[in-house]
Backbone:
């Protein structure tokens, strides 16, 4: 067993973990943060995307021990003070989901995309979400949801 | 899926990593970006009893561009993809890296890890072959450089000796009249290359004076395409000359065939993607 200390959604956790424990299992089973989903479990579907030190990664292909000292953000950490993140709101408003299984990963990947490219074209949104698979929507409303969030975030910034 | 148990070490220097590798020998695997190794461990295709994670070895990261390009083995795809000086010095590298996996894979995957793994459908082997890169390694007998042409020995096999770790990859920056490009037919789900072609050309006084082409994805390992190169050198690099040269792509190679693409189809795509890569490289060289 190895001791790790990680900050997840602003909360510090110190845990004893087996080196082989995957980050996604640590989040879901040790900390009950079940918003991060396990889809394909083979690094292809993106349902398990979280941010490690601000960078989007697949938590099914990362060991928990590798995150010692890291800051992690999961879908549970996006809303603040009961206010949905603009991406969460966008998926709601634009009906960017049907079953919702891929949604946490979609939103976390989209958040990373908007950080690097605050005003993406539809083409860039599609390219930016190529690591996330949705089997319900055909992606149309997902692209609209991300565009909604980009516009809302730009408007909020202009108002500041 | 859960990997078999292993002991985990996270050294902070190359010297420490080499010592650990020496101590644990064949039981140990180096963990770089982990996007080939961890999936293999989850499927129990690999069950090393010791994992030496070199992500904390800062000296193995970074990109230097002047007359020579030097890329640290632990540099991530995303760092390479967004390096503007590198895109100018060697566009084939930037072309290829932007097509690897997806953003999350590129945030973790590393150039050294990919080369050491030598997946037959990985993009980077074709690129380093076309750039005539040197792969620098360090091991129990000190440092040595391996030419890319000697590095890939077979499917998933390289010239790395036990106990050696890749440290840097170096190649020349393009000068006047030089251009390069990478074109690929990606597998639609995994984004691995069904066929990928990397091309480098040098143009002087309207003539192709040097050319290197390599193909990945089609056979058990990435390979240079000497027949294509010889056919193009001495021509004016026109579309006709490129088409005639690209017709030799895949000659003498063993083609892989699977449910995604038959051997015959891969052979046809070798020609198509070689042509595309060459046309782009020539356009950049002019």
Residues:
């Amino acid at each position: 067993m190895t001791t790790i200390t990680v900050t997840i959604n602003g909360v510090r956790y110190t845990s004893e973990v087996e080196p082989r424990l995957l980050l996604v299992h640590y989040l879901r089973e040790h900390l009950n943060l079940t918003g991060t989903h396990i889809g394909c479990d083979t690094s292809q579907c993106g349902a398990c995307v979280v941010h490690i030190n601000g960078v989007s990664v697949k938590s099914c292909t990362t060991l928990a021990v590798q995150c010692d000292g890291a800051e992690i953000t999961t879908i549970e950490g996006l809303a603040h003070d009961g206010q949905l993140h603009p991406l969460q709101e966008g998926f709601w408003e634009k009906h960017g989901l049907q079953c919702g299984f891929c949604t946490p990963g979609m939103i976390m990947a989209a958040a990373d995309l908007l950080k690097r490219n605050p005003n993406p074209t539809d083409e860039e949104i599609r390219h930016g979400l190529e690591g996330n698979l949705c089997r319900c929507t055909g992606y149309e409303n997902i692209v609209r949801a991300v565009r909604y969030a980009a516009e809302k975030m730009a408007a909020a910034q202009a108002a500041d | 899926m859960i990997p078999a148990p292993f002991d985990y070490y996270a050294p902070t220097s190359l010297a420490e990593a080499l010592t650990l590798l020496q101590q644990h020998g064949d039981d140990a695997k180096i963990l770089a970006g982990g996007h080939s190794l961890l999936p293999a461990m989850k499927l129990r295709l690999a069950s090393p009893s010791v994992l030496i994670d070199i992500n904390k070895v800062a000296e193995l990261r970074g990109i230097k561009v002047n007359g020579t390009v030097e890329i640290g083995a632990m540099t991530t795809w995303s760092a390479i993809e967004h390096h503007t000086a590198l895109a100018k010095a060697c566009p084939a590298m930037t072309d290829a890296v932007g097509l690897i996996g997806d953003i999350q894979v590129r945030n973790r995957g590393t150039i050294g890890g990919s080369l050491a793994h030598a997946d037959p459908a990985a993009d980077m082997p074709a690129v380093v072959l076309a750039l005539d890169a040197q792969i620098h390694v360090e091991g129990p007998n000190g440092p040595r450089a391996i030419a890319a042409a000697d590095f890939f020995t077979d499917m998933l096999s390289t010239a790395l000796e036990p106990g050696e770790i890749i440290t840097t990859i170096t190649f020349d920056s393009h000068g006047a009249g030089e251009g390069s490009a990478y074109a690929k037919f990606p597998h639609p789900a995994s984004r691995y290359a069904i066929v990928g072609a990397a091309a480098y050309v040098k143009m002087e006084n309207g003539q192709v004076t040097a050319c290197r082409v390599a193909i990945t994805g089609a056979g058990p390992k990435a390979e240079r395409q000497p027949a294509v190169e010889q056919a193009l050198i001495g021509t004016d690099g026109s579309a006709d000359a490129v088409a005639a040269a690209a017709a030799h792509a895949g000659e003498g190679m063993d083609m892989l065939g699977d449910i995604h693409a038959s051997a015959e189809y891969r052979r046809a795509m070798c020609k198509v993607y070689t042509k595309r890569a060459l046309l782009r490289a020539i356009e950049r060289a002019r």
Summary: The CA atoms of residues 40 and 46 of chain B lie 6 Å apart. Chain B touches chain A through 30 residues (CB under 8 Å). Chain B has a mean pLDDT of 97.
